[in-house]
Amino acid sequence: LTDELVQRAQNGDEQAFEELVLIHQRKVYNLALRITGSCEDAKDVSQEAFLRAYRGLPGFRGESSFGTWLYRLTVHTCGDFLRKEKRHSDNVVPLYTENSDGEEYLLQLPDLRYTPESALERQELADAVAKAMDEMPEDYRSALSMREIGGLSYEEIGEELSLKAGTVKSRIFRAREHLRKALIKNGNFYPDDTTKSRAGR
Amino acid sequence: VIGLNSCEHYLEMMSAFMDGELDESLRAELSEHISTCDECFNASLAYKAINEAISDGEVTPPEDLCALVMKKIHTSSPAAPKAKKKFTMRHLGALVAALAVVIVTAVAAPSMFKKAGSDEAANDAIEASPEDIKGSLQNTMLDGSIANDADQDDTADGGEVGTSDNKPGFLPTLPLYDEPSDPSYSVSPSYSGYDGIMMIGPRPGTADASDVPVEKEEDSAKEPLGDPVIINDYECSAIIVLDPAVSPPDVFEQYTYYSWVENQDVYHIVSADLYDELTGALENLSLSYTLDLFSELEKDGWVLLITAMKE
Q: Between chains, do B5 and A51 touch, taking CB under 8 Å as contact?
């Protein structure tokens, strides 16, 4: 169905394109939201991404799925947006770099077990993760969002961010660690009896 | 007791595993470790929870998003993707391949050309008042001159491209295509849908441009020129010269990403944003801004001219 819509849209059928927008707007918007960290920006960036997609349709040759192509384009658009933002705010300092948080890991972590038991707990955790993602360095946020929301492979992410796949792997790992630690600190992950948790596995 | 650094190694493996990116040969090792290390076991549960939470955290996009997109398409895109002839990026690839450097007098920035031939002239031009330049722009004087890098082999896809012509008053003939005439052409396999002409080249006099006969520009740039030229229904008042064979200077990095151009070799030089900014600046006669941008780029050794296009 998507293929057909894409083809029609490529032939100038605006209605077909509109349908594609409706199908993909959730992913595109959420991707933009995660990367930019702001609803307002995400709305703008999503529009721009779709506009670019529309203009770029003739260049889409089905080498990847339309979704993948579109999400990559969304990430590009976010990247453009963030670069512009950066130009206007030179005081942005990365919280830490890839190689400087090795020490951090020496921190003794309590044993933890996460067991979401209710919808409410799930929602709480989702909110906490969203918040922690917003506070995460942009590099990490982009990479993890591209993976988790856009569903891109490491290689595809690497192409988008001009990184080697190995660096993407490391960045996504660090993003997860960052989130995990933030959630521990925030009390979303709580200690549990390790023995018990293992027995329950 | 397993050291934490070693655990970090396993957690990274776990992270990759969850993304389906862990080498098969390492899975047994990871599994072995997780089964004995409580910390890593717990961390892996946390990772899973985080993944789920990210999906749970997806929100519904604003209701009017789709409508806004469609509205934008109507207002900012002159036509459906294939509704009219376009000088597409694919064609640009052909053009650029055929030309070492293309230079067309930019009405807003004659300094660029003069710089090409003489630093003195460039300094003069930089000191020109915005009013002067504005006047110049309003006259929309135009000259086109293509310096063909001497009979390059690559004119198959754009025979007319290399036509060298210094007569004032009109642009050199540019190839107009509906579809690429040579499907095997591979310089820029993914280019498309660009309704303009953007080219950037190394400033003549810098390493890669030593053999480009740009000196010719100096004369023609001073002459009064004719009306804007229509190319593919667009009124062109200048052209950006771009050479994908040359790495972009750092200053370009912030204008990177021509988003739907997937070819890694070139996309980072071509920029929708830069294009928008420059054309926007030209159209609105925000000359000081345009010139700032130009000189910023120029400092990095780039000749930059632009097509200001109108329907």
A: no
Other Cβ atoms less than 10 A from the Cβ of B251: the count is 15
> A interface mutation test: which of B4, B37, B39, B42 has the most A CBs within 10 A?
B42
Chain B CB contacts of A50 under 8 Å are 69, 72-73
Query: Rounded to a whole number, what is the distance in angstroms from the first to the last CA of chain A?
Result: 41
| Secondary structure class of A83 (helix, strand, coil) | helix
pTM over 0.80: no
Please state the three-class secondary structure of A166-195 as a single string. HHHHHHHHHHHHHHHHHHHHHCCCEECCHH
Asked if ipTM goes beyond 0.90, one says: no
- How far apart are the CA of B218 and the nearest CA of chain A, in angstroms? 35
Residues A130 and B58: their CA atoms lie apart, in Å, by: 9
In Å, how far is A4's CA from the nearest CA of chain B? 16
3-state secondary structure (DSSP) of residue A112: strand
Nearest Cβ partner for B260 among A52, A86, A123: A52
Give strand pairing partners of B145. B103
Whole-number Å distance between alpha carbons of A109 and A86: 35
Where does chain A show beta strands of DSSP type E? 112-113, 190-191
Query: Do the beta carbons of residue B238 and residue B217 sit within 8 Å?
Result: no
Encode A30-58: b = buried (16+ Cβ within 10 Å), e = exposed: bbbbbbbbeeebbbbbbbbbbbbbbbbbb
Instruction: Round to whole Å and give the CA distance between B265 and B261.
Output: 10
- The dihedral through the CA atoms of A152, A157, A159, A164 has a sign that is negative
Q: Which residues of A touch B5 (CB under 8 A)?
A: 102, 105
Mean pLDDT, chain B cut into blocks of 10 residues (311 residues total): 67 90 86 84 85 85 92 65 33 32 28 32 35 31 30 36 29 28 27 31 32 32 32 36 32 27 27 49 40 48 34 24
